Amino acid sequence: MTRRDPKLDLLRRVPLFGGCGAGEIQRIAALADEVDLPAGRVLTRQGEVGHEFFIIIDGRVRIERDGALLDTLGPGAYLGEISLVDEGPRTATATAETPVRLLVVGHREFHSLMERYPGIQLQVLRTLAARVRRLEPRAAH
Average pLDDT of 102-126? Predict the structure, then answer.
């Protein structure tokens, strides 16, 4: 009898990886570390250089820019990809609103995913475009 790997099961449910096959999911799992953090922990700080990308497994993360609430993210959402894509500073502060369980992918591993799996790269770009449209209505043309 084959045992199911909970990390693989979690990754299969993340919308970002919806188009990935079993082999791709296994490769992503090998690149991601699973961490548990308490409520109140800052994941990203606006203006600081980012070195990782986060996928929320459990819990809620509050996203703020200049102290104003932009969004609250839950399971299946991801964050931190903007500063990894352009290697610029974080565009917002992300704080665990509740205890959170996350998958964390470092800078090198993130770029490896983007290069190796064009479908993931396309999904990240689509998400970035959707965020620009939502947050900057004048830039949506």
Answer: 83
Amino acid identity, position 35 = V
- Round to whole Å and give the CA distance between 91 and 134: 14
Q: In degrees, to the nearest 5, what angle opens at C-alpha 141 toward C-alphas 76 and 139?
A: 65
Cα diameter, the chain: 56
* pLDDT tens per residue across span 75-93: 888 898 888 778 889 989 9
Burial of 92 (0-12, 13-18, 19+ CB in 10 A): buried
pTM for the whole structure: 0.78
Q: Are 46 and 66 in contact (CB under 8 A)?
A: yes
| Residue 90, domain CATH | 2.60.120.10
Contact present, 63 and 69 (Cβ < 8 Å) = yes
Residue type, 19: G
In a domain, 67, yes or no: yes
Instruction: Quick: pLDDT tens for 11-54.
Output: 887 777 767 788 888 888 888 899 999 999 999 999 999 889 89
Range of the domain at 58: 6-135
